[in-house]
Amino acid sequence: MLAVESSFRGHGIATALVQQAIDAMTKRNADEIVLETEESNTPAMRLYERLGFLRSKKLHRYYLNGNSAYRLVLPLRSVDFDIAQDYLIGEVS
């Protein structure tokens, strides 16, 4: 879980933290990074998509409170995007 105290938001802290995690996993030769975020968490969705994550699946009623989520994937190696399109869903509006 990643969270930034509301009084510190808007200063690039979340971006820096996620980028550090991406860099660490890249150095460890990970093929991809997969995470889930709540469907209604628009700021998180924008952050992850801005960093290159792609929506791969909607997870209906994923959380105990009944809220849905999206699974997001960041490929770290070459991807055949013609094949990948079969596994991806639309963009954040």
From TrEMBL:
Gene Ontology MF terms: protein-N-terminal amino-acid acetyltransferase activity
UniProt KW Transcription keyword: no
Family according to the record: Belongs to the acetyltransferase family. MAK3 subfamily.
Transit peptide in keyword set: no
Organism: Metarhizium guizhouense (strain ARSEF 977)
Keywords: Acyltransferase, Transferase
Domain N-acetyltransferase span(s) in chain numbering: 1-77
Top-level taxonomic group: Eukaryota
Transmembrane annotation, as ranges: none
Gene3D superfamilies: 3.40.630.30
A cellular component term, taken from the record's GO annotations: NatC complex
Name by which UniProt lists this protein: GCN5-related N-acetyltransferase (GNAT) domain protein
